[in-house]
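Problem 3 from the worked examples.
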Amino acid sequence: MEVTAADVATIPRTNLRVSREEFAAIWRVAERQCAEQGQRGVTDWHAGGVAVACRWLARATVRPTSGPPRAARSPVTERTNLAYEEQIEAEFVAAEQLDMQQPRPTWLHERPGWSEAICATLRWAWRRAGPAPLQVDEAAAS
């Protein structure tokens, strides 16, 4: 997904505890990494986790290669509700619980870095705690 200025402009201010610019830079890097790795036939689960969390927080419209466009689903619970404050907090708690689950579910074990990336993204963007989930250089941010 290409992150446009329109996508960024419509992010509800209450959905982020970081600036829209910081958030957009991370989101763009995640989407770019997913696309680049996908072209190589590689699944980047970490970048994918960041991307799905960002899409949901931003209330982005996902345009799949097949089927109609739809609102981004929450990354862990896959709810179709739009992200808003109470939902974001509930999703963060669900993500943390999933990440700590022992034994780790097989499907999650097969997605290395995915749940950790979702937790890191929500922790950073929503709770304003911890570092950004990806590194951003100036060229990648635009």
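Problem 4, a separate protein:
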Amino acid sequence: MDADLVIRAQGGDREAFERLATASVGRLHAVAWSILGDAMLAEDATQQALLSIWRDLPSLRDPARFEAWSYRLVVRACYAERKRTPRWIPNIDALTGVEAIAPDTVGLVDERDRLERGFRRLPFDQRAVVVLHNVVDLPIDRVAEVLGIPSGTARSRLNRGMQTLRAALAADARSSVLDASPGETGR
């Protein structure tokens, strides 16, 4: 981000803030969606993060650190959104207008579904680290800085999160094989 733009926005320049928000909204929403796994919740978290950015921008000490600071605010908004909502909400709106899926994409859909189920099994603190490191592609030291945790804690959460994700995917694959194997028909 352009530090001059951040400084102008800190001074109350609405046009500068609008440019910052426009430039940031896509990446903030991508992080929120990756963490929450639901488009509507991600929109709410992104909106909350943008409001926090507007409200707290004057207190940002180093304008060059705007990007990391904004990631921290969107992760906090995701935590808040997670606390406000039940464990699982069916997203019926996502089903409207669904068209037939081509046979060659069924495998991709199944794989994405298994990955998403495994990802949901991650504790929220591990999920945030995995998203910032693997989706946003931040170095682990920067992830620790964004989340306000020690680097060792970030490394540990990433390691445990990836182990949990691998175990969940392996268990899901075993379950799929068992479901597909011939067995009693229950007659």
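Solution to problem 4. The chain has a mean pLDDT of 83. The two ends are 66 Å apart (CA to CA).
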